[in-house]
Each structure stands twice: as C-alpha cells, then as structure tokens.
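Repro case for the chain-ordering regression, as requested:
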Amino acid sequence: MRGSRKALLILLGVAVALFPSPAYAMHISESILPGPWAGLWFAVSLPFVLWGLRDIQQRSREKPYTKALVGLVGAAVFIVSCMPIPVPWLGTCSHPCGTGLAAILIGPWATVVVASIALLLQALFLAHGGLSTLGANICSMGVAGAFIGYGVFLVARRVGASFFVAAFLAGLLSDWGTYATTSFELASALCGDNSPWQMFLTILVAFAPTQIPLGVAEGAVGAMACLFIHSRRPELLGNLMEGKRA
Amino acid sequence: MRHFPGAAVPLVLFAAGWLFCAAGHAAEPARKSADAPAARAGQKEAAPQWEGVDKTVIEKYAEAAGRPAREPYINTDQGDLLLFCFLVAGVIAGFIAGYYFRALFPPRPKKTEEKTNV
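-- result from build under test --
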C-alpha cells in the first residue's frame, strides 16, 4: 500500500512538472479596471494583508512550526493558482485557487498574505493578472476565498458535518466565492449605465459551466489533503476539528 | 495515513476520467479535419480551444465595456519565454513545498528498522 501511495505521489509530481503552462482564469488582467475602482480594491485589501502579516508574526512566536506551514501552503497556493485544468465538455481551462484549504491550515489572515505574494509574482513574471488590478485579485482570491472557506468549514463542523464533508464544502464554496467576487468586481466597475446586478449575474452565469466542476474537484482534493494532515499531524489543525477557531 | 489510500481511489478514478474526457475532446477537431479537409477549406479558422475563462469571460465583457486588457508591464508572454518562466516558477515553488513538507511530515521509520533498533 505504501508503494502504491509513493507511485501515486510521484505520478502527480511528474504530471505537474511536465505540463507547466500558463493558466488564465479569475485573474483580472492589466488595465481592465478603471483607476478609481482599482484603487478602491487596493484600499480594501491592504488592511487584510497588514493584519495577516501581524497574524503570521504572532503565531510564529507561539508555534514554531507556523513558518514552515505558511511556506508550504504559500508554495502550494502559488502552484495551484497557476495550474490550468481543462474542462473537457467545454473546451476551456480554468484553475483552482487553493485558498479554502489554505485558510483551514493557516487561518484566513495568513492566507491573504500568501495569496497576495502568489498574485504579485504571477503579475510580475508570469503575465498573469496585473499590477493595477492586484488589489482586486487579492480581494477575490485572497480575502473572499480565504474567509468563505474558513467560515464554511467552521459552520459545517459546528452543525455536525464530518471532517471530510466540511473540508469539501470549504474548498467548493471558497472557489465559487472567489469567482463570484471577481464577477462582482467586474460588474461594479464596468456596468456603465446598465444595472450592475444584471451584469453580475451575466458574468456569474458565464463562469458557471467551468467553475462548477472545478469547484467540486477543488473541494475533493482539499478534503483529501485535510484527511492526510489529520491522520499524520492533527495538531496542525488545532481547535478547528471541534468547530472552534484555531 | 490510515484513511488516505482508500479515500484516494475515487479521486484517482475521477482524475483519470477527467483526463480521458479532455483527451477525447482535444482529439475531436483533429479527427474532424482529417476526415473532411475539403469541407474545411472554405471555412474560417476555428476558435482556439482550451482558452482560460479570463479570455472567454473576463476579457470578453471588459472589451464589450470598452476596457480591453493591455499588455503586462513585464511581458513574458512571448514565444516560449512564458513556458520557461512557468517552469522555473514551478521548480522553485515545488522545491519550497517539498522542503517544508518534509520538515512538517518527516518519513516514518520502517517497521523493520524499528525492530532492528530495539
């Protein structure tokens, strides 16, 4: 069994290494948002990033393994949010976000920081997203994705959902929440004289065929990863297991 | 690790099915063009496949609203340069992830080693 597990991990690693290619999905590209809207989303995201940095510093003093965990999760979020996944029946690609799982492991505030770093590197070197739209992308993937995932996981545990189901729902809804926030950001900035809600729904519906299956896949993979961590090092999950804040 | 292998089976089946469908979808246009080259001659080039939803959704609505995307400030999207950048980024991130993974989840000693040590 141990050998087959190793083979599975090697296969996944080889697959990821052999097919690196640009993924374009929730990232809003350079200059799509007008200046004032881009500035507004920067202003919204900044306090979350600063609080996240403070949270990481504080927790590193209390728990020595925090930095290693944040490093692992940060690298994973960067990789996952670059990984294009084809949706066979549509012929399009999109990527998961990984922020739901990240929020369960390191908390939502620290997740905003790692998502911001990932998005900044992608905007700078991978032609992926944009510097002017970084604030909006942090809000959708970092803030919304992390807090929705974390909140859903806590609520699901409190109402008695199993660990697997709670982690699955966190991954699923954090993915959908990210794309819903992107739709809101686009609709609010680009609606012009039209109704922003109508445009929001239109964009959301356009995302749906790709993101519904991808959200399910992200939820399943996140739940599997949580099960693995729970079985190997349950202390990393802290009080979350009982539905209390870590 | 007790629950992992059993629970991994549906995940692997799901991923394999997904890849199978994607491969089938990718092969479809090539098969069609091989079957009917004459019919294709007078037609426009087909829309590119496997584009991300940022092209098919975000940029589509942004262009309709008069806000087309501009080139990135550091434009690595030129030829194979972007592929190189993704590969380097993937290697570095993979190394960091692997390093910390091993620090957090060190390999368990094998049972035979345990017995020998005792």
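Ordering looks correct now. Chain A touches chain B through 74 residues (CB under 8 Å).
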